[in-house]
Amino acid sequence: MTTTSPASAGPSGPSGPLAFVHRRRRGAELFLLVLALMVGIGAYAAVGVGVEESVPADLVGYGGWLAALIITCHVVVRLVAPYADPVLLPVVAALNGLGLAVIHRIDLDQGSAFASRQLTWMSVGVGLFIATLLLLRDHRVLTRFTYTSGLGAIVLLLTPMMPLIGNEVRGARIWIQLGPFSLQPGEVAKVLLVVAFAGYLVQHRDALALAGRRVLFVDLPRGRDLGPVLGMWLVSLGILVFQKDLGSSLLFFGLFLVMLYVATERPGWLVVGGALFLGGALAAWRIFGHVQTRVDIWLDPFSHYGAGTDGRGEQPLEALFGMAWGGLIGRGFGDGDPGRVPFAESDFIVAAIGEELGLTGLMAVLVLYGIIVERALRAALISRDGFGKLLAAGLGAVLALQVFVVVGGVTGLIPLTGLTTPFLSYGGSSLVANWVIVALLLRVSDLARRPLPDLSGGADQGSDDDTQVVRVQR
Amino acid sequence: MNKPIRTISVFCLLLFVALLANVTYLQFWRADGLNDDPNNRRALDERFSQQRGAILVGNDPIARSEPVDDRYDYQRTYLKPLLYSHLTGWFNFYNAQPATCEGCQQRVEQTYNELLSGEDDRLFVTRLVDLLSNKESQGGNVQLTIDPAAQQAAYDGLRAVVGPEGEGSVVAIEPRSGKVLAMVSLPTFDPNALASHDLEEVNAAAERLEADDDEPLLNRSIQTTLPPGSTFKIVTAAAAIESGDYEADDLVPGGPSYQLPLTSDDSGLIDNEGRDCGSDRIPFAQAMENSCNTTFARLAVDLGAEAMQEQAEAFGFNQQYFEDLLPQATSRFPEGMNEPQTGQSGIGQFEVAATPLQMAMVVAGIANDGSVMKPYLVDEVQSPEFDQIDATDEEELSEAVSASTADQLTELMVSTVDNGTASPAAIPGIQVAGKTGTAQSGQDDVAPYAWFVSFAPADDPEVAVAVMIQDAPGRARGEIAGGLLGGPIAKAVMEAVINR
């Protein structure tokens, strides 16, 4: 690529465009991490006090382990990505800690043991996070794996359809069963897809952007360039049809559209893609019973709840009742009844938070997600290479879409789909994948904020207007 | 690529704004509606398992929430179930009665539900403190006006008279304030069976009670209107004295029989069932002592339907005035009667019908120098820490008769106890004012209703009592008379109050 990101120019003061140097702010990150740990450990203690009226006996061990994981992350970031965004990791740590506490709360209600397994998964996630940061010193290396990741993603998406290991849970065929482990390969495919899209689009963006004709103020793409769009559309529809997974379908197609738009800068793609999506969704709604059911339940959950009905409205309606019961400030840990909502520890963890921590808690969670998305998009803005921009924007968008789809579904804004809430929900594949996403985002932001190598040399740096600045090509 | 990234940022912002707005709508504006939804077991469960405040009589709770180990944290327990069931009601899972439920029996558990459950606005500060100190929220307490000794005396006395199957009611009022000191209705029931956490057991008990012919769920003190019989002669006497035509020391028309105007046959003939009512004019006191039908029928005819109705309504007939228990029957004094009907109403017959509470108010009004106080059952409401947060104010319902009329009526009623039919209520050393009543039901196979009303001490009344015996199985028809059956019960209640 030959263009330079305008963001790297910074304020063009007397010392030139390259003199703006991001501060590392690792101290700030450490401070915020301590706050995040207070959220996680405090919430865990609050659950114990609220439910069992005593501080949990394993608080020191649990808190110690959580702190060890988080501080290790910090140390690794300090060592190998010193310029990385200082806000991202603390926000993620806070969400993950809160999620653990809420899962623990539901464990106490249901007699299950999801929290300890989630802590194990978090450890695995943190391990992969560290591995990603250590192994991937420059995200552009990933462009080499464009097609490999794409293929991997498609294979992963297909696995739930395979006999023996494919597993249908509550109507959606999105799980695979490997011995004692059940995995949701879609979560991992999500990351691979972003990598594949970013790599593909960064190579083909010119063709996709420049060719085409203008119809009614909208630049429409060339027919032959529609191939990947149509392909992705078909994949999304396939997920919807064969796996009955509304959420993933919407997520992948939305992600693809966003990245296409960012790469080509042409809203025409949004028009085409949006039309395709709407058409597909409408067709799916007309043709497929499970989509109709979802929409019916969404429109009138009350007619699917209670004696004499099919009872399908139970989960969404109990969630609504729970959140209404929580009100503005919530019932407090232990004083609600989140166990009434089936799958409160995974898909419906937002409802449990709304019930026990109230509107206040839910808003805080949403704002934390907003911050993650904002930091991701900010990294995309200031990134100096196209791949990094696409990668960060894609990862940010996929998080935003996922949060919107799942929280919107649980709170009744849109029809319900089965997706995990990033970092909060119980679920190994989701948690691990999201930690890798954070690592990738930190890597992109690290390279974006890192000062450019000083090639002007010598003592006259930045003081001599005549000095020619040589820009590094990236 | 930055322009589309900025556009995407705005798009993501909109997504989050939509989520925040929707969550705010859900948890703030829509929350109340969802919480009131009958499907919302969460809200129901919570209300059912919370620690409600106590209902207190004297210093003792008669209903309280006790911690238990099942899924609902607290069990509502009634400590003297049979004695107070008609006042407390019961608290169970179905008890959050819908607002549309007309005719549901609402007793203190329901009429004071908001306070007992802690949702009342007057408990806002308490709730806030509980919230900040992370304490489990607790409901406020309701203190009843009931005098436990009087209630017990009324229950024991009535129960002894009517037996386990019998039907009757006793109401005692403090004349100067309107406080209900005792309110008993038999047969009674055990609210604990209706408050159980075992919902099947509750349903079975409710069905059994509703199917019972004796109607144990009915609070006869306020829900049953019956002909008051001779006790209504007090009202007739009051109207006579108020009219200015008569005084307690005057002679009134007497005689062994009286043919009602416009009538010629037996149905219009009123006699005195063998009691001595002279031949022409007799002292007012004698007419009262012997409960002379001829006298009071004639007085009523002389006074006219309008004056009689005015006097009855001044005592509270044809209106509802009791707010703590619902629903209640309206005591009737018919409008626009002709002369013979007026004559019959003067002795508490025709379509005159009163609740025991109404008859207690008639005597309480006389005891209180003619001023009828609005009766009330809930004395004060308290915070969970038993601090008073609100008290019921005494309120005059009406000035039924003048003080001098009240004095004369008292005089007549005292002599009725001292020398007449009401003698079973006499208390040694204390002047008691009273009046008996025995009302024919008009049906041969239904025993007459026995009434007794009284107050004491006559010079400084502390308690006014009305006793109504609707059905006393096993008692001979001739034995059923207000004085004989009701007198001792009223006496026991008055003694309990005076000797406390």
UniProtKB/TrEMBL annotation, chain A:
UniProt KW keywords: Cell cycle, Cell division, Cell shape, Membrane, Transmembrane, Transmembrane helix
Keyword Iron: no
Membrane topology category: Multi-pass membrane protein
EC numbers, comma separated: 2.4.99.28
Pfam family, one: FTSW_RODA_SPOVE
Broad class of the protein's primary localization: membrane
Pathway annotation: Cell wall biogenesis; peptidoglycan biosynthesis
GO terms classed as biological process: cell division
Compartments in which it is found: Membrane
Spans traversing the lipid bilayer: 30-47, 59-80, 87-106, 118-136, 145-165, 185-202, 223-240, 246-262, 269-288, 348-369, 390-417, 423-442
UniProt catalytic activity: [GlcNAc-(1->4)-Mur2Ac(oyl-L-Ala-gamma-D-Glu-L-Lys-D-Ala-D-Ala)](n)-di-trans,octa-cis-undecaprenyl diphosphate + beta-D-GlcNAc-(1->4)-Mur2Ac(oyl-L-Ala-gamma-D-Glu-L-Lys-D-Ala-D-Ala)-di-trans,octa-cis-undecaprenyl diphosphate = [GlcNAc-(1->4)-Mur2Ac(oyl-L-Ala-gamma-D-Glu-L-Lys-D-Ala-D-Ala)](n+1)-di-trans,octa-cis-undecaprenyl diphosphate + di-trans,octa-cis-undecaprenyl diphosphate + H(+)
Protein name listed in UniProt: peptidoglycan glycosyltransferase
Annotated source species: Nocardioides salarius
Automatic annotation (TrEMBL), chain B:
Xref: Pfam families: PBP_dimer_2 (PF21922), Transpeptidase (PF00905)
PANTHER family: PENICILLIN-BINDING PROTEIN 4B, PEPTIDOGLYCAN D,D-TRANSPEPTIDASE
Statement: the UniProt record of this protein carries the keyword Glycosyltransferase: yes
UniProt KW keywords: Glycosyltransferase, Transferase
Residue intervals of the Penicillin binding protein A dimerisation domain: 52-142
Gene Ontology MF terms in the entry: glycosyltransferase activity
InterPro entries, alphabetized: Beta-lactam/transpept (IPR050515), Beta-lactam/transpept-like (IPR012338), PBPA_dimer (IPR054120), PCN-bd_Tpept (IPR001460)
Residue ranges annotated for the Penicillin-binding protein transpeptidase domain, each copy included: 168-495
Organism phylogeny: Bacteria, Bacillati, Actinomycetota, Actinomycetes, Propionibacteriales
EC number: 2.4.1.129
The name this protein goes by in its record: Peptidoglycan glycosyltransferase
